[in-house]
Hints:
about 40% strand; Malectin domain-containing protein; Malectin_dom; signal
Amino acid sequence: xxxxxxxxxxxxxxxxxxxxxxxxxxxxxxxxxxxxxxxxxxxxxxxxxxxxxxxxxxxxxxxxxxxxxxxxxxxxxxxxxxxxxxxxxxxxxxxxxxxxxxxxxxxxxxxxxxxxxxxxxxxxxxxxxxxxxxxxxxxxxxxxxxxxxxxxxxxxxxxxxxxxxxxxxxxxxxxxxxxxxxxxxxxxxxxxxxxxxxxxxxxxxxxxxxxxxxxxxxxxxxxxxxxxxxxxxxxxxxxxxxxxxxxxxxxxxxxxxxxxxxxxxxxxxxxxxxxxxxxxxxxxxxxxxxxxxxxxxxxxxxxxxxxxxxxxxxxxxxxxxxxxxxxxxxxxxxxxxxxxxxxxxxxxxxxxxxxxxxxxxxxxxxxxxxxxxxxxxxxxxxxxxxxxxxxxxxxxxxxxxxxxxxxxxxxxxxxxxxxxxxxxxxxxxxxxxxxxxxxxxxxxxxxxxxxxxxxxxxxxxxxxxxxxxxxxxxxxxxxxxxxxxxxxxxxxxxxxxxxxxxxxxxxxxxxxxxxxxxxxxxxxxxxxxxxxxxxxxxxxxxxxxxxxxxxxxxxxxxxxxxxxxxxxxxxxxxxxxxxxxxxxxxxxxxxxxxxxxxxxxxxxxxxxxxxxxxxxxxxxxxxxxxxxxxxxxxxxxxxxxxxxxxxxxxxxxxxxxxxxxxxxxxxxxxxxxxxxxxxxxxxxxxxxxxxxxxxxxxxxxxxxxxxxxxxxxxxxxxxxxxxxxxxxxxxxxxxxxxxxxxxxxxxxxxxxxxxxxxxxxxxxxxxxxxxxxxxxxxxxxxxxxxxxxxxxxxxxxxxxxxxxxxxxxxxxxxxxxxxxxxxxxxxx
Length: 828
């Protein structure tokens, strides 16, 4: 549920409104899971009537009837309206209760526990608390776990005593599950061995024989002994059939289960489930050594189909290292796979509390960003600011637009969802722009709903973006010196790879392009500066004798070790003569800035020779262009957006007609339509959107989709937008799939339309052996990918399901016209 467990005893019926000062709360039967709020997102501003916790931290929240019960490490609380007036503060040692409707602190609910309370749960009649306490007032029989009445009285006949701290309490039916660092539980004079997990009879407190699955070992014994075996947190699915536990352990029931394990608790006897992963073992992680376990919380979805795990541990290389340190990750309960469905990286900050509410995953911690897999302790490419609290897309882990902000502190360790909203318990006093002392309610009323995105179906109209023709006829060569072939941005010839044109040099791909100075022609693809060929190298570009040509050479320094003038100096010789003497990119253009140098010459018939020689450090080059000065440049024609009707198989049923001429659609590099918005890439490497009306083809004003470039140096996520040949959105998996010029593979990255956030990470899809190297527009409808071809102009269809191509392509149109920049189909 969240770090420091929290449970609800509310009915599932949602409350429809919040009045100016209070909520109407309907108590009901126990339902010890976070409320299923569906696609609803709570408001970003807290209500004003909740009391304040004045010191320590809130570790757990639950509700029984119309009482909210709060626990943690605090000793003082205050009424809602008097945060700054300490004269009316009340002493409440580690636990208190208040009216869920009015916020009035319950004067009689005062168990007075003498140590930290880590977890709360309820069965609708009683409240169960677990922690490090050893007495309730003068009652020293209460140790580390206690059963309370709804009014806060200790049930003195219920006296199990774990020998060490309890970190978690979860009630399912008549079983009270506890987890922690204990090795035995004493009831009366009998001590029963239990390795970090036990179940107690909710009526008698007896240790149940059916739950005896020892947790043993430690995550990293080489780390100063590895600390103490313990369960940090666990959760149990609503139906009671599965228990997911995290903590400092290496084996469970004698089986290898490092830091994360799932038990089958569907019967009277609990057993280790077949579910397993090695992603949390020491071999796969190099988290900071100050943590005996880097796992922090786990919470099941309301339907039990998956659970979400949060973690600490430092950046540790991020996604490139495959680490689970400082991530939030989703795991399918029934899966036999080793890897999570998704892992969201904060960039080195801890996430604590987790609450899954159906269509939203709420997380709290001291994180500063989401979608930040490339940088540690700073915002990298793709990093979306989210201070201390965030709401994530359950399907892909990207942040939703909800962004109240919270003073970070250590973290929000108690997140508890009820039908009226999300309760947040932490160690700080600012959230959503308001002062709420360590406790806040973000109400459901006044919130938003994540829009539904329906799948596109056939028959339908396809909208296709025409290509420009006739431009750049004077271009003899366009060469990407180190990268793959690139699409031209001006309708002229595309940029080829360097194959067969160069001897020597090595390739470095920096994964992102750089800004350009005024020497670079505006139509040059930005991606030309993403990769460099460095070292001594000799080029030969065959050109007939007597040609009057312009040679353009493109350079950009991206290596940090040569960012200053004088650190990289080299000569460039063209046809044996020195063209650039002691050329210093950093001095000429600055670091991480694309620049171009050109010269004119008459060819000698032996080809154009370009040689790079080092003076200091390695020479480098990014691209080469050769222009025939005597040839016509040609005139390009603007591309229009056409409408082409197709039947249920994707076969065209009529002639194309013009749908939109508001922009030059030949500049588009892949596009897709969803919910009345067209998203499209352009040759400049950016992603854009406009409103789109299917009936008329009309579009609204162009807006840039924020890709959250690195705020320090402008580095963009590795999304080759300027070189795309098609893309589509899969509403089931919340992914953008795309094809790249000259590349046979099908790629994808996550995308959440509600927030417009594009995932920073790149993934390769299973293309089922189908090559998309010549794709010319790609779309998805009725479970089939439709794609054009730059080679034969045919339209093909191939089945697609579950994120993969599942069959063989068939030609649905062979009229030779399907050579488009984009093919898209409306979903509404």
